Amino acid sequence: MRAAHDTRGTSGDTLTLDVPEDGGARYWLTGLNPAAKLLAALAIGIGLIPAVDAVTGGVVLFVVLLTVPFSGVDRRTLLVLGGPFLLMGLSSGAVNYLYGEHGLEGAVGAAVRLLAIALPGLLAAVSSDPTEVSDGLVQRLRVPERPAMGVLAALRLIPLLADQWRTITLARRARGLEAGRNPFRIVSLFFGRLFALLVRSIRTGTLLATAMDARAFGTGKRTHARYSHWRGADTLLLAGTALLLVGAYALSARLGTLVLLFG
After folding, report:
1. Membrane-spanning residues where (predicted)?
2. Among residues 231, 233, 217, 238, which one has the least CA distance to residue 152?
């Protein structure tokens, strides 16, 4: 099995980091086709929309968490990338607790469901090589080449944006733009850096779009340098995802805790 992938680069300019070859058997999630992982994450997201109780989403979240050690993603990377989703889950739970109709149970259900929907997509992204993601989108999911190449470019540019954010921060610090202990100043400087990063992102995106047009992306059928392989394990992943959703709903219904959004 090939080496696993991570979201950090040894040189800081790529999204991937090779895991030692002897860890290939352990990090089996990285050996699956990215298209299969994205389909599984999408199935979980759609499948959990009707269930607003904590048990259904909790079962799915628990099983997904069990796959984290096999994704090749270290704890620090998972914490950094999953932090915003965790904050969103807590915020959703707080809002539902204060203004919802189901009290604490509804709040926990909303938070758990959001995390159960977000985590599979996060694992699918960080455990896949961006180039293989693009190949899987085009060859397996029949996504048009232009948006697929856009996804590839976006994944490849994430580390670049991180470097640009650090550069903007250091440049402003060199000009004496410091917030000190003023919280309002911190917010103001943050949005100033965010706007500068947005401007740079637009410029970079314009250059990429021009380069793609010059290479005639999206104008006709193209050949592929790599073949996106679909293996039996990919089919098993989708089957296991379906069984997981059915099992989660069945367990929740048996316990009498199932609450449907449209019920």
Report:
1. 38-66, 78-99, 236-262
2. 217
CB 89 within 8 A of CB 112: yes
What is the number of other CB atoms lying within 10 angstroms of the CB of residue 21?
11
What is the C-alpha separation between 75 and 35, in angstroms, rounded? 24
Helices 232-255 & 54-67 angle (0-180, nearest 10): 150
- pLDDT means per 10 residues in the chain (263 residues)? 43 44 69 94 94 92 93 81 86 84 82 93 89 89 82 79 84 78 77 86 83 74 82 95 96 91 71
Residue of 239, 240, 260 lying closest to 249 (CA atoms): 260
Report d(CA 68, CA 30) in Å as an integer: 11
Backbone angles phi, psi at 18, to 5 degrees: -75, 130
- Supply 46's token pair: 């759609």
Compute the Cα dihedral for 46, 7, 192, 205 and give only its sign.
negative
| Spatial separation of the C-alpha atoms in residues 53 and 43, rounded to whole Å | 18
Q: Where are the domains of the chain?
A: 21-135+227-255, 145-214
Do residues 100 and 52 touch, judged by C-beta distance below 8 A? no
The confidence score (pLDDT) of residue 151 equals: 81
How far apart are the C-alpha atoms of 135 and 125, rounded to whole Å?
A: 14
30, two tokens: 């990285």
Look up residue 120 and give its amino acid.
P
Phi-psi region of 103 (alpha: psi -120 to 50; beta: other; left: phi over 0): left
82's torsion region: left (phi>0), alpha (psi -120 to 50) or beta?
alpha
Dihedral sign, CA of 29, 89, 16, 124?
A: positive
Predicted TM-score (pTM) of this structure: 0.75
Residue 117 Cα to chain centre, angstroms = 10
